Amino acid sequence: MSTVRENNLLNIVNSIYPTLHEAERKVANYVITEYYNVIDMSVAELSEQCDVSEATIVRFCKKIGLKGFHHFKITLAREINNPEKTTHSPTVNLDNIEESIQNIYAYKIDELKQTASFLDPQAVQKCLDLIEKSSIVHFVAAGNSIPAALDGAYKFNQIGIRSIVNTTPEMQVNLAQTLTENDVVIGISNSGNSKLLLQIFEIAKKRKASTISITNHFKSPLSRMSDIQLTSITNEKLFFKEFSFSRVPAISVIDTLFLLLSKINFDNSFESISDLEQRLSDYKY
Fold this sequence. Notes:
Elements: H1 9-16, H2 22-33, H3 35-38, H4 43-50, H5 54-63, H6 69-80, H7 97-118, H8 121-133, E1 137-141, H9 146-158, E2 163-165, H10 169-176, E3 184-189, H11 195-206, E4 210-215, H12 221-225, E5 228-231, H13 247-264, H14 266-280
Parallel strand pairs: 1-2, 1-3, 3-4, 4-5
Helix pairs in contact: 2-4, 2-5, 7-13, 9-13, 10-11, 13-14
């Protein structure tokens, strides 16, 4: 389980959000939108604002790895007042394109930094070992995460790691039925609640294939079902609630695996990529 570290408290709240009970979600919603005010509130005041018990607030704090509400306020205040952290408004305004650009990229950069801080080096090493020894790597995803799966399969094949991906649910399940104990399944899901991916991981378990999940929620059903869980952080709840920005962090995790794998056998990887580029050169102007 991830622990609270500097500059990622709100991301942790976002990450565990699907696992919270209804009353705890009221606290999370208020904290996410009114975090500047929370640091000046007592537990009784927050309890009244959220219409929940004080015990619920304490339980919420413990679920994000803190000792209690006082610890929560200290940690949140430290993040807000961090002089090295530039404050950007989570808005896009067509009347101020320059400011909007800065806001968008500030949050994208923050997503990447937080994703890096959440990646467990030991978990990454285990992924490298499994993938390097695998017969086939199956990338699976649904909806908005499909482009990340396509990107992963393309890059892995570039360096000689046999990988397959399909965009239709029926074919993904069909391919899962062919898994062997020498195969690895990499499932990409922002929520970690995709019924399709849960079904595929269930099939993978029965067929003794290894499973790796890349998800924004480290306590999600998919994360718990996987052999290895990698966390990608998104700022959806801090930014535009009506849009999903899950692909950038997920693709950064795939890039990390790709670059590390290419270093394991650099000569073969370089030769494979060079050969591919040469063969594709006829299609380029």
